[in-house]
Amino acid sequence: MKTASINGKSTKSAKTATQNACKLCNPLGACLAFRGIENCVPFLHGSQGCATYIRRYLISHYKEPIDIASSNFNEETAVFGGSHNLQLGLKNVTQQYKPEVIGIATTCLSETIGDDVPMILKDYKAIMRDEAPLPIMIFASTPSYSGTHIDGFHAAVRSAVKTLAEKGTKQNLVNIFPGMISPADIRYLKEILTSFALPFVLLPDYSKTLDGGPWAEYHRIPPGGTPTDAIASTGSASASIEFGSTLEARKSAAGYLEERFGIPRRHLPLPIGIKASDRFIAILEQLSETPMPAIYEDERRRLIDAYADGHKYIFGKRAILYGEEDLVISMAAFLSEIGILPVLCASGGKSGLMKKRLLELIPGLDELDIKVRENVDFVDIEHEADELRPDLLIGNSKGFTMSKKHDLPLIRIGFPIHDRFGGQRLHHIGYRGTQELFDRIVNTVIEGRQQSSSIGYTYM
Amino acid sequence: MELLIEKGVGIMKEEIGILEGRQNQIFEKKSGQEQQFDISCDKTSLSGSVSQRACVFCGSRVVLYPVADAIHIVHGPIGCAAYTWDIRGAVSSGPELHRLSFSTDLQEMDVIYGGEKKLYRSLIELIEQYQPNAAFIYSTCIIGLIGDDIEAVCKKVAQEKGIPVMPVHSEGFKGTKMDGYKAACSALMKLIGTGSTESISKYSINILGEFNLAGEAWIIREYYEKMGIEVVATMTGDGRIDAIRRSHGASLNVVQCSGSMTSLAKDMEKKYGIPYIRVSYFGFEDMSKSLYDVAALFPERPEIMEKAREIVREEIRTYYPEMQKFKSALTGKKAAIYVGGAFKTFSLIKALRTIGMSVVLAGSQTGNKDDYLRLKEMCDEGTVIVDDSNPVELSKFVLEKEADLLIGGVKERPIAFKLGVGFCDHNHERKIPLAGFVGMYNFAKEVYESVMSPVWQFAPRKGGLA
Fold first, then answer.
1. ipTM for the predicted complex
2. In terms of Cα–Cα distance, which of A383, A381, A260 is closest to A328?
3. pLDDT-based confidence at B9, cuts 50/70/90?
4. In this complex, do B49 and A16 lie within 8 Å of one another by their Cβ atoms?
5. CB atoms B77 and A19 under 8 Å
6. Which CATH number covers residue A431?
């Protein structure tokens, strides 16, 4: 009965329950995105547990205090509606945190009882109109029974822009909506944009709020984040850059700005690998009308050199990729350009677009026998793994069970990284991120070879 | 809108305010005149406060989680199952079904049309796949609202599959974590009494409220067994369905952890006439007492007490000298405690005193009035006592009281580290046993390693740059 029975006797056709989910719930993503707005407190309209579990989950990755308020439903709230609790909660959060913004996201509970949150907020503003200036309230609908955490993330970013973006004279400004990347990735992106001398607004920016320094005193809200006036100016930008292969315009911040203010949306996959990074840099060159700064030229050249130095270790290796669809898609494209076959591209998400987007990046997908699976869990992935004979697993910490059982090395990327130190400081994007990933992948293979040899080579 | 801080304890004059509606949940012990002690507790968290508590579901999940030969199915959307997958350090000596995460993963259509069929199919398939000895079905928030009759589904599946299928009524919003404990205990109560009690010794106990984090239940079990006492069931810690089913054959229930399983002990006393005692396995003092208290209840066999004394002597002889190094370094240091159950704080205060440390803040998520009264008795002057606190308050007191250490769980850890204060994880995720005599040694060592680390020299609190 031990874990050996994980695959049990079931066949794939008879699988109703989700087992060891390869996704998280919608509100988690919204809380994370709200953490990237300056002076903002994330607020979940639902039971206390949602806020606490999500805090715990995020803290275990980011190692930073993450306060998420809750409207704390009780039985009466569920029967009579959440308006009283929500309003009291907003009042208390305002009092205790003195935020500039409260980022409100729903949960399955408040969605199921049918709370009309925008209406409740309107009433609240009316009741409180004589009080000192109220915090700005950004609301995202994030029912846990639809989509995954990534949908909640994008919903929060879109609603931030929807709430705050103002029409204005077009200015030399670029919006950048990078999606769910690491704090280190965000810092690197900012560095790149700065060196192109491109004025930009990056949203959400949790590079400091979720990876900051020590405190002399407790901060109710950690310093950092995208300021609200910067979000307001997204409405007058000259272009938006948005990462995320499966992110549709109708669900995205850049999509909203394009529709509402006619700001062109430059949509591209997460820039992982040389080709994808080139594509991103080319857009920046175009927008800034300046060539790539020398430091990135050098980074790129070092990366190409590293590809050459390391290619033999990894050629023909077979990898299973799992995680958010957009991360998996971009990682698959990167692996393809270094000679690793992503034999399985799996996600708990189900945009319905994954294969289509992958085909755009890897045209020979079917011939190469690359399997693409949406809406799967870790038990499904394990089933597939039995036949796919992978050499590597690449994804978040939650693949460790599978990695241990099948004695497969796991290269940890993305979120969550709960079983290693420094997940918030991992790079994934651009030449620098690609370099880091490439080094880690090559070293994992080398280590495997070294360890499995009885000779004890000290040169590999 | 400014705060009514005067109503509180008079120590929060400065900028960090205490929410209206929370002042009565904070108390500072002072010298001199008799203080009115009227701490308010046992209530649901205030909306908009960032409580460190979880919900009803969490309470149930905490209690039942370590039952290792059962499957645990969370009926609802994916979050609740995802966030509790392999979340704790509860280990098993055999099957490990508890480390898997099962969810009916309800989707929008299920919410509209009901999730009963999906639950039924999930149950049948999972039981066929994993061959568990029982199944626990946890209701999450929306289950009652969408009208699923999980009792009926459980009954049907139990009949078809011939194993107990226990509904756990743990809708998140229907009370506090304490109600979740009760829901879990009711599910256990249905199992208890269905197994044979044949050949159970008269000198036998059940261990309740011990979840076998890092193998702690094994340590405790071994002590009692060495004393000549049969341990019928460790209940959920390294839990097995068969042991739970026959646990009504034990002569005594030994209950640790104030909140989680006292209600089960009470129910078992009522139904089966089994008396219970409350114990704690943290710290030399309470650990020893928990052995003596049990031995004292079997007076007709004096050798049990003799053996208990022998164990205590031997264990303390082993660990006490080692601990003097920690004590001499830690003497005079100050600790803040914020944990789930108040009972644990009592032991921690004593344990900290053993290593020379005083307690400047003591609080819990779920203490009741009696707990806090006792806490007040135990604490030194100036100690702040809090119920259902939040990060802002905790940080405020940690800084004001110049604590060198915070004891708490994952959510409290970053507060300590941000402020440059040592931390000891005393929650369910820890991987090092802190119970038993060896546990006290581990605890002292961990506290020492965190408090005495040279890294704090760079903390702003110690003059470093923020």
1. 0.94
2. A381
3. very low
4. no
5. no
6. 3.40.50.1980
